[in-house]
Amino acid sequence: MNDEKKLNGYEKQTVVNSSTSENNDFVEPKKGSKILLIVLLIVFSLFIAGLIIGMLIIKFYFTADRFLDNQVKNVNTYIDELFGESSIDMTSFNYLENDVKLKGNVLFMSNMAEYQAINNVSIDFETYMSLKNHLLSLDLNLKNADTNTFSGLIYIDNNIGHIDSPNIYSSPLYIKSDDLENYFNSLNENELFNIFTNVNNIKQLFVRYLQYFAEALKEADMKTEGFGLEITYIYDINDSNKKAIANKFNELISNDVLYKEIFNYIDDNSWEINADDLSNMQIVINASIIDEKIKSFTIIGDDYTLVGEKVNDNKFMITDDAGDYLEIEMYENEYVFNLVIDDKNELHANIKNENNSVIIESILEDTKINLEITNDGHIELLYSYDDISISFSGNNVLTNANTIDYDGEIEINYSGSTIGLKYDCSLETGKNIMPIRTFENEVDINTLPEEELYVILSNLQNLMNNLPIDSLVTNY
């Protein structure tokens, strides 16, 4: 029985020991280890999900065509910030619908002994124009010192031209000519004035051209590739898509309202892009995936390669096969350009918006150009080459909705010798401000006898003799 107890005890002990041994072999995971495992699984899942989402974003959001659209928007923004808004907008000065009045005077000046005579010459003028009614009136008063050398009125009414000047003939003269009527017709059809006197139109011409080029480039073979925080856009222009690119650009620009008006004055289709003139090339652009700013680009053509690289946050450098390069520095309100060819700085240009002014400075070899345009209408221009310089200083002040006052000075300087003029005038537009002229005892110039024509020629010769024109021509 004791043996049985022992046996039982042994067995019991054996069982207990066996159970203890199993517990020693299996160690229950700690609570922290389970959490770590769960976190790792979550991170891995998020990584896979992020990878998939990133691929989808690159595929559907960071596309080569969308990149082009964004770059056009950026350029538009840059231009608006750089050039701002001008206080002088000529859109209300629609000379096709309104009458126009230009009144003022011009004074000539020179420091050269041989041209001293022109210091006494001045011109007062008053001009009216109504293109809608085919009317033009020009009243001139030319003085040499205090002597009234010439005074006269030139008036055009449709196809009839009138001139009334006692310095030319004792009676008013007139002549009929269809060329006068055709002149008015051509001006009435001319919309270029309204296009180029609106600052916003000029900016839009540039931006739209870039926009249409970007749209046309979408006809190329496009591809997008993503590498980390960079994304690559590839555009291949080749024989299979050049015609589509050219057709797309020509279609867009030919249907643009602004460009249509310009193309009306171009006899041929020289503005169109010809597919045969397009070169095969590949454009590769590397951009940041965060802000889509360009970090580098490469343009590979049949016989050339251009490489653009971002040097720092503000500077970009474009280099060709020969090692010549263009540096572009871009700041909030300033652009700086440096062109180096054969290790020689060929061009330096600076464009900036400072104190409500657009300032452009350019040096091209021995030629220098400085231009400053303020938002309140002041303009300063200096052009110089070797010993020659041309300067212009002027003000354009919008005095009311329909009137602009102009004053300024133009001077040509050659090695210290100067010749120039000063002007002071005003431009006004409105309805029915065009005067209607009538002439008494008017004579048709075609009916004058020969001796009377000689009288007119003699008077014109005397007029020329009383002006310093002869000395100007002789000393030129």
Looking at this protein, list some descriptive labels.
39% strand; 476 residues; disordered N terminus
SSE order and pairing:
Blueprint: H1 2-25, H2 31-60, H3 64-83, E1 99-110, E2 121-130, E3 135-144, E4 147-157, E5 160-164, E6 173-176, H4 178-188, H5 192-196, H6 199-217, E7 221-227, E8 230-237, H7 242-254, H8 257-263, E9 281-288, E10 294-301, E11 305-310, E12 315-319, E13 325-331, E14 334-341, E15 344-354, E16 357-364, E17 367-374, E18 378-385, E19 388-400, E20 403-414, E21 417-430, E22 443-444, H9 450-465, H10 469-475
Parallel strand pairs: 6-22
Antiparallel strand pairs: 1-2, 1-21, 2-3, 3-4, 4-5, 5-6, 7-8, 8-9, 9-10, 10-11, 11-12, 12-13, 13-14, 14-15, 15-16, 16-17, 17-18, 18-19, 19-20, 20-21
Helix pairs in contact: 3-6, 6-7
Descriptive notes:
It is a single chain. The chain has 476 residues and is α+β, with helices and mostly antiparallel strands. The chain has helices spanning 2-25, 31-60, 64-83, 178-188, 192-196, 199-217, 242-254, 257-263, 450-465, 469-475, and strands at residues 99-110, 121-130, 135-144, 147-157, 160-164, 173-176, 221-227, 230-237, 281-288, 294-301, 305-310, 315-319, 325-331, 334-341, 344-354, 357-364, 367-374, 378-385, 388-400, 403-414, 417-430, 443-444. The chain has a 22-stranded mixed beta sheet. Strand 12 and strand 13 form a beta hairpin. It is elongated and about 90 Å long. Residues 1-24 and 42-61 have low confidence and may be disordered.
